């Protein structure tokens, strides 16, 4: 059975090039092309393609928004981001929104075609550079969690009070300890969380709480 594909891409030449190569395959067919977000948003639900090749930066909205709005109505459709953006925020927002693949424009057409087949069969295809970023993000996250687990109960209490904006003296008074002891706890917190200052420590603490 042929894989049905919709392309959402405002760059006409790239959109048409993708269509041409895809339609040349015996196992897949482009059933719709969209050149802006609104058009895609209005029509994708009725078409319900197997795979959507989605650009992120469209003239009227982000491709990420389209996925967020349509994912519930198109549970069987697989979205692959095909974009020139490689920044962490866009990658993770895309994946959070429900994209199952993330390719960088400039990938070979062979890679794009194999990614369509891959995602259709339950895979999560990514450009090499993107896969590395995703892996290193989770490695960092695991290291952060480990650091937080190493904090003693008292160190966690001190960090909680720091995050509330209390000064060392106020923390010392509240916990009936000396300022030097507070400083010692704070030094341990920085070392265990691999941070260099109070702002970084509080950011990590807030990250753990959420």
TrEMBL record:
The keyword DNA-binding is annotated on this UniProt entry: yes
Every Response regulatory domain range? 4-120
One GO-annotated biological process of the protein? phosphorelay signal transduction system
> Which UniProt keywords are listed?
DNA-binding, Phosphoprotein
Q: Where is the HTH luxR-type domain?
A: 144-209
- Sites bearing 4-aspartylphosphate, chain numbering: 55
User: This protein is called what?
Assistant: Two component transcriptional regulator, LuxR family
Upper taxonomic classification of the species? Bacteria, Pseudomonadati, Bacteroidota, Flavobacteriia, Flavobacteriales
